Amino acid sequence: MNKIGFNVLAWSAEMSEELLPVLDRLKKIGYDGAEFFIGGSPEESFKLVGKHCADIGLEVTAVTVMGPDHNPISQDAKIRAAAGEQLKWVIDRASDLNAQVLCGPYHSGFTVFASREPIEEEYNWSAEYLHAMGDYAQQAGVLLTPEALNRFECYLCNTMEQLSYLLKKVDHPNVQAMFDTHHANIEEKSLSESIKFIAPQLGHFHISENDRGTPGSGHVNFDETFQALADIQYKGWLTIEGFTRNDPAFANSIGVWRNFSEPWNMAEKGYELIREKLAKYTK
């Protein structure tokens, strides 16, 4: 049985008690879990939010990114080492949240480009780092699911083929793949074929519209998506990720310059869409 989650980045990238009423309402709608961005919030705030989720019966997943100073595929060995230390800190915060999954494009630096295609040395650096982090996260009970992003946000892994290639090098049971329909809508030739291709390595799934607004309001083919998920018998999380300008600093960092949808429209209509498609395609 799939669990349905919602990423609270639609409200804020900051971890604080201001999120608690949001979490209460997500639980009331029917969500099984909430997903949180792990950035620079105070360490104690993660335990506070994690405890509240546990108290109301809301499960947790998390997402993070690596910046230029923590780029796992940097030519500078000191920066690569810093990436490992940073991801350990993030995994510790995920543990504070009682998170089951840590997703995101942390295989490489977010919006850090080399003005060329990826090279084998970079895949090897990323794989070495992810294998070590797989061990660390496994001890914390957190599954790592690195994510392929579109070409405008990274260059190491844009497609499921590239992500699968990297994960075969990682060769760790606690490091699996993440699929996001927003990025796949840009980079993949076929949603269904790419889902089926990555199926043996798939550990987490984002339901995201082409414009990052309310799922079902754009042109991502969710009938094709849910049919493919049913075909591969995927039983993991289905988490909605949509963005707004509610947190201007975060919005600016990811190039969100307008509101695509109101957050509660995303949450309510998105939940309805997932329930409808699961009922239609899950045997």
Layout of SSEs?
Elements lengths: L2 E5 L12 H10 L3 E5 L5 H14 L2 E5 L13 H20 L4 E4 L15 H21 L2 E4 L13 H11 L6 E4 H7 L3 H8 L3 E6 L14 H10 L5 E4 L7 H6 L9 H19 L2
Protein name: D-psicose/D-tagatose/L-ribulose 3-epimerase
InterPro entries: Sugar_Epim/Isomerase, Xyl_isomerase-like_sf, Xyl_isomerase-like_TIM-brl
Keywords: Isomerase
Structure description:
- The protein is 45% helix and 13% strand.
- The chain has 283 residues and is of the alpha/beta class.
- The chain has one domain (3-281): TIM Barrel.
- An 8-stranded parallel sheet has the order 5-4-3-2-1-8-7-6.
- Helix 1 packs parallel to helix 2 (43-56) and helix 7 (191-198) packs parallel to helix 8 (222-231).
- The N and C termini lie close together (11 Å).
- Keywords: Isomerase.
- Residues 23-251 form the Xylose isomerase-like TIM barrel domain.
- This is D-psicose/D-tagatose/L-ribulose 3-epimerase.
- It holds the Pfam family AP_endonuc_2.
